[in-house]
Design goal:
347 residues; alpha+beta; HIT family, subunit A; nine-stranded antiparallel beta sheet
């Protein structure tokens, strides 16, 4: 092949969304020089009396948290979606169009400790979080007007996280959102043509090539996808093709907790900070259909590029033209794979 993907600019296709990423590896021959500075992180207390997510503390209005000892979930006090929204449409000449959107938003506290993020938690504690994710997906997804349950975490101030207490969110809504909608179309088309899930065949290919795999266990594999846009972007794919949180076996739930521990520890170890990211699951829709084409997976989208303070921004060409990156996915996978599985604070 004359096209050297490590040296020549090229475009990479994302088969999940049908979008392309412009890659320009020649711009950066040495993509990472290692840590360039140490950023001082303030020590957080195990309990913060001013935190609205800590056990026993007051939240908005008259709400008060119980003195929970493991995980805790509640309806978001400032919910972006409301269950009683009218199902009506506004339409002005087919140019100004809006539709009411019903939904429920919840907050999931991962741990009662204010200072303990997922990579610092024991795998058994993360398993408790996994069980709660499964329960929320099942409970909210069973509601008649809920067709998608989006479970995600924004970690770090630069990702818009408004409270440092370790937590995630659940947005359950009437409409399947844009990103999973794109994935639904392309997974369905691939399954129709091949009789296998798109991510099953992609994962087999990545395992055979063995260039972008970062971590793995019996049930899950973490890969820097061939089409990655963010510098340290990864995708967590189940080895067994299944669609829903509720399809997981007990052993797979353990495996999910373990693989989340593995990848988040590696993230923190890159620059020895609490590594920011937006991460979330893409399970099958809860619209009452079977969805044999859907393969359960999780995305991690971290913004940091070369150091604890150098971020990648989506600007200019990336906003007006095409997503673009300089470093190759293989280069970032090599760095992630080489990192210790022991959290830097424990060494």
């Amino acid at each position: 092949m004359n096209l050297d993907l490590s040296n020549y600019p090229h475009r990479r296709f994302n088969p999940l969304t049908g979008e392309w990423v412009q890659v320009s590896p020649h711009r950066t021959k040495r993509p990472w020089q290692g840590k360039q500075e140490r950023v001082g992180e303030s020590e957080k207390p195990q309990y913060d009396p001013k935190c609205y997510l800590c056990p026993g503390n007051s939240r908005a209005g008259n709400a008060q948290n119980p003195k929970y000892e493991s995980t805790f979930v509640f309806d978001n006090d400032f919910s972006a979606l409301l269950p009683d929204t009218p199902s009506e449409e506004f339409n002005k000449d087919n140019l100004l169009i809006a539709r009411g959107e019903k939904g429920i938003c919840r907050v999931i506290c991962f741990t009662p400790r204010h200072d303990q993020t997922l990579p610092e938690m024991a795998t058994s504690q993360i398993r408790n979080v996994v069980d709660l994710w499964v329960k929320q997906y099942e409970e909210l997804g069973s509601l008649e007007e809920i067709n998608y349950v989006q479970i995600f975490e924004n970690k770090g101030e630069i990702m818009g996280c408004s409270n440092p207490h370790p937590h995630g969110q659940v947005w359950a809504q009437q409409t399947i959102p844009d990103e999973p909608s794109k994935e639904l179309i392309h997974q369905k088309n691939y399954f129709k043509d091949n009789g296998r899930t798109l991510l099953n065949d992609y994962l087999e290919l990545e395992i055979n090539i063995d260039e972008r795999i970062v971590a793995q266990n019996e049930h899950f594999v973490v890969v820097v996808p061939f089409w990655a846009f963010w510098p340290f972007e990864t995708i967590v794919i189940s080895r067994r093709p299944f669609s829903r949180f509720t399809d997981m076996t007990d052993s797979e739930k353990e495996g999910l907790a373990d693989i989340i521990k593995q990848i988040t520890v590696k993230y923190d170890n890159i620059f020895e900070i609490s590594f920011p990211y937006s991460a979330g699951f893409h399970p099958a829709p809860t619209d009452g259909k079977e969805h044999p084409e859907w393969h359960f997976h999780m995305h991690f989208y971290p913004p940091l590029l070369r150091s604890a303070t150098v971020k990648k921004f989506r600007v200019g060409y990336e906003m007006l033209g095409n997503q673009q990156r300089d470093i190759t996915p293989k280069a970032s996978a090599d760095m992630l794979k080489s990192l210790s599985d022991v959290h830097y604070k424990s060494r």
